[in-house]
Design goal:
The chain is about 20% helix and about 40% strand. It is an alpha+beta fold. A hairpin with a 7-residue loop joins strand 8 and strand 9. The longest helix is centred in the first third of the chain and has 31 residues.
Length: about 230
């Protein structure tokens, strides 16, 4: 009986440490995969190795201890053959950067750059406090219905911005806050999502709000053509 109790006492710290590692991996993956932590599933591969999966992507993490877990690679599906092309004006701008991508335009504040380590189109600010990603899907749903289905816990609303109807959704994870703006045209939904590591306020912060409000359809014709 004493041996059993002793063994149990030795086992408990290991279980507790494993739970802390999984929690650390979930928080880190929420940021790296640009997805709410509640949507991240963690699978243990070894004593200190884990796979995190969320929003159709996955990544491998190795933990040195319960406080330090680092990205050790991605095992995401290959990018589509026809990769989207993105045009960013000036490498180091002094003002907002206009991004034209797949038929829409949005503006990023100074300091935002494309994350070349990511296998999907994502932009981060210099302090890595914000991340911005555009996704385009074919759907017969209205933007508001799409957001309600995709993010059941989110607050969803619609309004008019820049003379066009736009729907928004806002939700929070453990360490990140997300806001999405969606436009619809010709059976496609254009969703621009901005995440922030400031979860102290329920409202969208000024950086994400500015980016999302700038979303609009790209004009037809050549740039500068009247």
């Amino acid at each position: 009986m004493k041996r059993f109790l002793a063994a149990s006492l030795l086992f408990l710290p290991a279980c507790f440490g494993l739970a802390l590692m999984e929690s650390r991996v979930r928080d880190r993956a929420s940021y790296d995969l640009h997805c709410a932590s509640d949507d991240v599933s963690v699978q243990r591969l070894g004593s200190t190795t884990f796979r995190a999966t969320a929003c159709g992507r996955s990544a491998i993490y190795v933990c040195a201890n319960a406080d330090v877990c680092v990205l050790n690679g991605r095992d995401e599906p290959p990018a589509p053959a026809a990769a989207p092309t993105t045009t960013v004006a000036n490498a180091k701008p002094t003002g907002p950067v206009k991004v034209t991508d797949r038929g829409v335009v949005f503006e990023l504040g100074p300091g935002f750059e494309r994350d070349d380590e990511a296998k999907f189109e994502v932009y981060r600010d210099s302090g890595r406090h914000h991340a911005v990603r555009l996704t385009v899907e074919s759907s017969a749903d209205t933007p508001e219905a799409y957001l309600t289905t995709s993010h059941p816990s989110a607050k969803v609303w619609s309004t008019e911005v820049n003379g066009q109807p736009m729907s928004f959704a806002r939700w929070s994870g453990t360490s990140l806050k997300f806001t999405s703006a969606v436009l619809a045209r010709a059976g496609k939904l254009y969703q621009l999502t901005c995440s922030s590591d400031d979860v102290s306020s329920e409202k969208t912060d000024a950086v994400c709000a500015s980016v999302l409000k700038s979303l609009r359809f790209a004009p037809a014709g050549l740039p500068g053509e009247e």
